[in-house]
Known about the structure:
The chain is α/β, with parallel strands linked by helices. Helices cover 43% and strands 14% of the residues. The protein contains 17 helices and 15 strands. The protein has an eight-stranded parallel beta sheet. A three-stranded antiparallel beta sheet has the order 1-14-15. Strand 14 and strand 15 form a beta hairpin. The longest helix has 33 residues, at 333-365. The termini are far apart. 52% of the residues are buried. The model is unreliable at 384-411 (pLDDT under 50).
Amino acid sequence: xxxxxxxxxxxxxVSDLRGLARRRxxxxxxxxADGAAGEELxxxxxxxxxxRVELRPTVLRDVSHVDTSTTILGRHAALPLVFAPTxxxxxxxxxxxxxxxxxxxxxxxxxxxxxxxxxxxxxxAAAAPDCRRWFQLYLWRDRGxxxxxxxxxxxxxxxxxxxxxxxxxxxxxxxxxxxxxxxxPSLSARTFAEGxxxxxxxxxxxxxxxLEFASLNRFEGTVAQLAARMFDPAATIADVSWLRTAxxxxxxxxxxxxxxxxxxxVDAGADAxxxxxxxxxxxDRAPVPLExxxxxxxxxxxxxxxxxxxxxxxxxxIVAAVASGAKAALVGRAYLYGLMAGGERGVQKVADIxxxxxxxxxxxxxxxxxxxxxxxxxxxxxxxxxFRPWTSSSTPPSGSSTPTPSAAPLP
Length: 411
């Protein structure tokens, strides 16, 4: 009898949920989650990288039982998956971060609350006490404010701190500029027109409590204005060392895009790194995380856990990332699509889809444990249809040249 359940009943993939989200949320809101910086080349290349992955199965293996569990930061996780930090989550649906935390707890995976989230550190802890909560931190210009967040996260029982380091300045997100996105969404002629097309979303927004930011009590303006107010372009590796002294729990550094930077942040005290280009939302034409992943694993994988994000929309993508060396994958857009499509039930649908796809993909690969996924289970197809080795020194094929064909697996 529930319209949400009816809407979600026919969903078979995260891509299906993306289509529902596009129809249900106002354009500016959907585009904030769906879009990226500049011409969105980094985002499209990240997705294309997973499309180019070929999975290499072994047959005649007993796969009657597949165990998708692993350890993340030394603790059990039901999947090699983390719900990534996302900004303004209650703007997608007013159930917001609390809904994501509930699903993460039920699924048995960590969830990172963003500094630019719309639920406070303390409120998420109260709403999802059983969730493995991480807190994602941007270094403020005011280091005292950053330290306050560290203290609040510790006092509220957060497990890990995630320092994002690829945001010295805001990326140029053209969709937000074209849509005139403000926080909170402003009531203008455009938004009234959007309200006629998406009455449920607007009714939900206007009849529930106002957006509450994790990072400040109140803000009104554009996304770029808020980011410019928060981000510190003067941050250096010394700030990672400073944070290591201020936080005695696991420290994850997110936004690493080269092996050299990975070594540097691990030397400064990071327990884990996320190979990430911020979902393509910062530097357009940035390295593709999946392609950079093997060299980062080779550089620091014996000293720190290595995660990856960007372009991950299926359980097959997660398996490919883990086989390529990642300890776990972070997803953000995927669960935001679910949230826009159906609130908490939509996020649960995403988790259920990803879990089922991971299990089926592992079984068809002939692998029964996450720890048995290896680089020789994957290889990266060239755009021309031939194969090439996927090594630490490999560069992605360009559109103007044809790589030397090869059928070699990952080293």
